[in-house]
Design goal:
mainly alpha
């Protein structure tokens, strides 16, 4: 019976061993370069994805911040409107009283004016 697939190995000469060793080194170098290229590409892709996500998140944060600022500004403007409305009402009331006072008879106005002067004195 003969054994299939097994051949007797002949010892390699020094030159053949050197050539085989150089081929292994070359193959290892190529694998290392390929690994490095793959790693670099992976890192570049990851960086691009992070930059994209960072831009999106910054946009979300800015949108939320603007919403908060708008709400604060709205509250401030409502307060300002309320104050201006009250001021306007006071001015209108004051002018109404002046108009009503000017429609009174002259004698009453003189008497009121004398009262004011005596209060000041």
């Amino acid at each position: 019976m003969s054994k299939k697939g097994k051949k007797a190995k002949m010892p390699l000469s020094d030159e053949e061993q050197l050539l085989l060793f150089q081929q292994k080194l070359l193959a290892e170098e190529e694998m290392a370069k390929k690994k490095e290229r793959l790693l670099n590409q992976f890192l570049k892709d990851k960086l691009a994805k992070e930059e994209h996500n960072s831009a999106l998140n910054l946009n979300k944060i800015n949108t939320q911040w603007r919403t908060v600022l708008r709400e604060v500004k709205t509250r401030e403007l409502h307060k300002d409107i309320e104050i201006l409305s009250q001021t306007f009402e006071r001015v209108v009331d004051c002018k109404d009283s002046v108009i009503k006072a000017s429609s009174l008879p002259k004698e009453t106005l003189e008497y009121d004016c004398l009262d004011l002067f005596t209060e000041w004195a």
